[in-house]
Amino acid sequence: MSEKTNISRATGVLGIATSLSRVAGLVRDIVVAALFGAGFGTDAFFMAFTIPNLLRRFFAEGSLTAAFVPTYSDIYHKQGQEEAQRVANICLTLLFVVMMLVTLVGIWGSPLVVKCIGFGFGAVEGKLALTDYLNRIMFPYIFFVSLLALLTGVFNVMGHYFVPAVSPLLLNLSMIFCALFMRTWFDVSITALAVGVLIGGALQLVVQIPVLYQQKIRLRPDFNFSHPKVKRIAWLMLPGIAGVAIYQINVVVTRLLASFLSEGSVSYLYYGQRLFEFPQGIFVVSLAQAVLPSMSRQVAIGDDRGFRESLRFALILIALVTIPASVGLVLCAEPIFSLFFMKGAFSFDDVHQTALALAAYAPGLFFVGVSRVVVPAFYARKDTRTPVVISFWTLLVNVALGLVLMRPYGHTGLALALTLSSVFNSLVLIWALRRKMGRLGLGSVSSALARIIPAAAVMGVVVRLLLDLAPWQATGQGWLKGGVLFGTIMVSMAVYLSCCYLFKVPQAKEVVALLKRKVLRR
């Protein structure tokens, strides 16, 4: 099986699993918006959840995965499963100890951390105190998901993707259940959401146990922390903490600045970002997770030509999906929030303000996708220093743009600053990779973009015309709104794919042919 097929297959499996979780996440956000709206309580919860969520990217999905997978893949394919399992045991033991300490320190130092990232909340009585209270409840979440991330890396190298990818579904279901049925248990009703996060994190880890038995992996404590491969992973992780998590660092900066804006701004940005991350989570993250083991395997056997081909193929797949998705999100922002969110405590003004945030985030989808593919290319080559240097400059760009744009444009300016910093980050990463590896042969990517962009533009015109058929500012009329939005999405997808064929995008034909073969085989 070719690496292109491996990447496409893994991306498909991860995409399906992640789709289930993202749909549940959308339902969760709809429930939260209807029950709690956008204001005092939700601002505090989303700000509090920022801290363990950021650490999840730092220690779990970000630096740990990027440092562990290439090294573990090298051991697994060269030294065998027995030695690979021994290294996994040592890493799991070390991670358990470290994350236990991080969790305890995080709970103890919560007041200081909350004040640093939500400084503007101090102007509203009780808002910082509520944020601190919710953060203390949720902080152990980072312990569970860090262990989960290591197991996910082990499973992915062995070719098992589905269960780890679908496990976030449990987090979303737990939060939905707690919000619906436990909010009356607490004096401050939004506390139920924090409890849901804690329960969901534990469930995500527990469901991996059957996979361990299925894959015949026997994990046990091993305190041989001086093992050279474990030291290698630890050294790779240190700079990777900032490098691979740059997007989340920028999110924290954005929310810090938003804490100085009018009440509801943090919530508007959160809801907008959640819809922005819907296609990102389904495809971009799945593709990045799928391409890292393939690239690591190619580096391990010295296949530089195959490495470049995998990178080009991944970038074209990113463009095929994210460019039309960006156009769709910009045009459908208000209709989406009107249909799904405008009920209960969520008014049309909330819909409009949140839609502005989403429309400002959306153009950055392609560039975030490029970064999520190019950064693993550095890590597959065991280079974690370059992304961290670039991340530092990207952070400065985001802060500068945020300060400039927030004054005239409020929370929309902050979302736009994050988009522009994502553009900067992706372009500099590609430039740095080219300096390190020489010519990357990205001519095929440019050729594909020259065909994909016009196809997405034609699709955008069709979307704009069809959306005028529904009264998005009116309350109710869900069937009409849903029919128009669903019909618009179906028609626009058909138009886009037809244009891809008309404009001769060969990669689109290749992906469709692969899907047809898999369907016919099943």
Can you characterise this structure?
This protein has 522 residues and is mainly alpha-helical. It has two domains: 3-441, no CATH class; 452-522. The chain has helices at residues 3-36, 40-78, 81-108, 110-117, 127-138, 141-157, 162-166, 168-181, 191-206, 209-214, 228-243, 246-258, 265-300, 304-340, 348-361, 365-380, 385-437, 443-467, 478-502, 506-521. Helix 1 packs parallel to helix 14. The chain is globular. The model is unreliable at 517-522 (pLDDT under 50).
Attribute tags:
522 residues, 2 domains, disordered C terminus
| pLDDT averaged over residues | 76
Largest sheet composition: none
Total number of beta strands: 0
What is the assembly state of the chains in this entry? single chain
- Count of spatially separate domains: 2
Strand content: under 5%
The helical percent reads over 70%
How would you concisely characterize the structure shown here?
With 522 residues, the protein is mainly alpha-helical.
Helix and strand arrangement:
Blueprint: H1 3-36, H2 40-78, H3 81-108, H4 110-117, H5 127-138, H6 141-157, H7 162-166, H8 168-181, H9 191-206, H10 209-214, H11 228-243, H12 246-258, H13 265-300, H14 304-340, H15 348-361, H16 365-380, H17 385-437, H18 443-467, H19 478-502, H20 506-521
Helix pairs in contact: 1-8, 1-13, 1-14, 2-3, 2-5, 2-6, 2-11, 2-12, 2-13, 3-6, 4-5, 5-9, 6-9, 8-9, 11-17, 12-17, 13-14, 13-15, 13-16, 13-17, 14-15, 14-16, 14-18, 14-19, 15-17, 16-17, 18-19
